[in-house]
TrEMBL record:
One of its GO terms (biological process) is protein-containing complex assembly. Residues 437-460 are annotated as: Disordered. It comes from Mesorhizobium hawassense. Keywords: Nitrogen fixation. GO terms for molecular function: nitrogenase activity. Pathway: Cofactor biosynthesis; Fe-Mo cofactor biosynthesis. InterPro entries: ChlB/BchB/BchZ, Nase/OxRdtase_comp1, Nase_comp1_CS, Nase_Mo-Fe_CF. Pfam families: Oxidored_nitro. This is Nitrogenase iron-molybdenum cofactor biosynthesis protein NifN. The keyword tRNA processing does not apply. This protein may play a role in the biosynthesis of the prosthetic group of nitrogenase (FeMo cofactor). It comes from the Bacteria. Belongs to the NifD/NifK/NifE/NifN family. Residues 19-428 form the Nitrogenase/oxidoreductase component domain.
Length: 460
C-alpha cells in the first residue's frame, strides 16, 4: 500500500500548488455570463489574474472586493455588497461567483449570512443575477478542492430540487479541473456520437477556448448556461470524472435523485473502455465505427511506444487526481514512478496511486526526489528544477505559461492517450544519449594483472 508522507517543512520552496480561490474562479469561468469575485485584498486577485492570463493567453473577467486594512478590521459585508451591486450595474452578469480568501476567512465572518442579507435587501436590483458563494480559504486545500467547492455551491444554489420528469438521453457530465478545453470538447463529441445529450458543468471549452468576440464582453462568453444548471434534475444520468468531483455528484443526487457514476480517470485504455462501455449501456447503441477505429489506433500506439517507456523512471508533481491519472498511465506503459509529489493529503485517490510513496510537498521535493529520473512531469514552474537536474520536462496541469496551446492538448480517451504516448516518446527520444564504448563494453581498457601479462598465452 502506498505511503502518504506529510509535509514537514515550515515553508514551501518553489510552490507546487495553486490556491482554492483560484480553483473556484476557474470553475465559475466555465459558466456563461459569469464573473468570479474574490472577497479579499487586491493582491490576492492580482496574483490569480496574472496566472490565468499567462496560462490561457485570454482576457479574464476576475474582480475583487478590494479589502483594505480598515475594512478588514471592521468587517467586509459593506465592501461585498458594494462590489456585487457595482458588478450588477456595470456588467449585468448572469452569475457572480464569490470566492473567499484567507484574509477574510481568518477573520471568521459569516459570509453566507452576509450574502443572504444582500439578496434580501437588494432583491430587485439583483434580479436576473445569481450570487453563489464558495468558501475557499487559501491556507488549506488547493485548486482541486476550490473547483469542487464552486461546482457544489452552484448546484446547491441554482439547480431546481426535487424529483422531476427524466429525459433518459440527457447526461450530466461533471469534469475535473484537470481536463483541458480539448478534453471537454472531445468528451462532448464522444457523448453525442452515442445519440446522447450532454450537459457539462462547468464547461470551460465554451468560454476559454481562445475565440475572439466581435465586441468587448465584460463577462465570460460561452460555457454552461444558468438555465442548463437549473434543469439538471431532468437528466437521466450523471457522470463525474475525478475523485474530487464526488461531492458535486452527491449534491446533485441529493437534490434531484439523478444517479451518478464516478470515473477516476479517462486516460489509458482501461479508463477509456469503461467510459465508452458506460455510454453504450446508457444509450443502448453500439459503439460507433469511428470510435472503434480510434481504439485500434491506440492499441497500435501502445505497441509502438512501449519500447520508449519500458523501465523509464518518471517523477511527477501534480494535484491528487492528475497525479493518479498520469501515474497510472506511465505504469501501464511499463515505466516506474520514481517520485510522486502532490499538494494535499485530503483526497482518497492518493491511496490508489501506483507508487511506493506520495510526498505532500512542493517543487523542491520534486527536485530532491526526482534526481536520476528519466522525465519530470509537472507545470511550468518546474522548468528550473529540470534545467538544474539535466532532465527533460513534460508540462502538465496549471499553469503552463512558457508554451502555447496547452489548453488545446488532448489527454483523455483513445485519441488523447494516443497523443500522450507520442508526446512522451518523442521527448524521451529527443533526450536519449548515445551509449559510449565503455558503457557497451565494461571490460574495455581494463588493466590486466601482471602475472597474466607475463604468461606464455599473453605473449602469443
Amino acid at each position: 500500500m502506498v505511503r502518504i508522507l506529510p509535509q514537514t517543512k515550515a515553508a514551501a520552496v518553489n510552490p507546487l500548488k495553486s490556491s482554492q480561490p483560484l480553483g473556484a474562479a476557474l470553475a465559475f469561468l466555465g459558466i456563461d455570463g459569469a464573473i468570479p469575485l474574490f472577497h479579499g485584498s487586491q493582491g490576492c486577485t492580482s496574483f490569480a489574474l496574472v496566472l490565468f492570463v499567462r496560462h490561457f493567453k485570454e482576457a479574464i473577467p476576475l474582480q475583487t472586493t478590494a479589502m483594505d486594512e480598515v475594512a478588514t478590521i471592521l468587517g467586509g459585508a459593506d465592501h461585498l455588497e458594494e462590489a456585487i451591486l457595482n458588478l450588477k450595474t456595470r456588467t449585468m452578469p448572469k452569475l457572480i461567483g464569490v470566492c473567499t480568501t484567507a484574509l477574510m476567512e481568518t477573520r471568521g465572518e459569516d459570509f453566507a449570512a452576509d450574502i443572504a442579507n444582500i439578496r434580501q435587501k437588494r432583491g430587485e436590483e439583483l434580479a436576473g443575477t445569481e450570487v453563489v458563494l464558495a468558501n475557499t480559504p487559501d491556507f488549506e486545500g488547493a485548486i482541486e478542492e476550490g473547483w469542487a467547492k464552486a461546482v457544489t455551491a452552484m448546484l446547491e444554489r441554482i439547480t431546481r430540487p426535487g424529483q422531476q420528469a427524466r429525459r433518459p438521453k440527457k447526461i450530466v457530465i461533471l469534469p475535473g479541473w484537470n481536463l483541458t478545453v480539448a478534453d471537454i470538447e472531445h468528451l462532448r463529441e464522444m457523448v453525442e456520437s452515442f445519440g446522447l445529450e450532454p450537459v457539462i458543468v462547468p464547461d470551460v471549452s465554451g468560454s476559454l477556448d481562445g475565440k475572439v468576440p466581435d465586441r468587448w464582453i465584460p463577462t465570460t462568453y460561452g460555457g454552461t448556461s444558468i438555465e442548463d444548471i437549473r434543469e439538471l434534475g431532468t437528466a437521466g444520468h450523471c457522470i463525474a470524472i475525478g475523485e474530487h468531483m464526488r461531492q458535486p455528484a452527491q449534491m446533485l443526487h441529493r437534490l434531484t435523485g439523478v444517479p451518478y457514476v464516478l470515473l477516476q480517470s479517462l486516460t489509458g485504455l482501461r479508463g477509456a473502455d469503461r467510459f465508452v462501455s458506460l455510454l453504450s449501456e446508457i444509450s443502448g447503441a453500439a459503439v460507433p465505427v469511428r470510435v472503434r477505429r480510434r481504439r485500434a489506433q491506440l492499441q497500435d500506439a501502445l505497441l509502438d511506444g512501449h519500447f520508449d517507456f519500458g523501465g523509464k523512471k518518471i517523477a511527477i508533481a501534480a494535484e491528487p487526481d492528475q497525479l493518479y491519472q498520469l501515474a497510472t498511465f506511465f505504469v501501464g506503459m511499463g515505466s516506474e514512478i520514481a517520485a510522486a509529489i502532490t499538494t494535499t493529503d485530503k483526497s482518497k485517490i492518493l491511496e490508489k496511486v501506483p507508487a511506493e510513496s506520495v510526498q505532500i510537498g512542493d517543487l523542491s521535493d520534486l527536485e530532491a526526489l526526482g534526481a536520476g529520473a528519466d522525465l519530470l512531469v509537472t507545470h511550468s514552474h518546474g522548468r528550473q528544477a529540470a534545467q538544474r537536474l539535466g532532465i527533460p520536462l513534460m508540462r502538465v496541469g496549471f499553469p503552463i505559461f512558457d508554451r502555447l496551446g496547452s489548453q488545446h492538448k488532448l489527454t483523455i480517451l483513445y485519441q488523447g492517450t494516443r497523443d500522450l504516448i507520442f508526446e512522451v516518446a518523442n521527448i524521451l527520444q529527443a533526450n536519449r544519449h548515445a551509449p559510449t564504448p565503455e558503457a557497451l563494453d565494461p571490460f574495455r581498457h581494463r588493466e590486466m594483472p601482471d602475472e597474466l601479462c607475463s604468461s606464455p598465452l599473453a605473449r602469443h
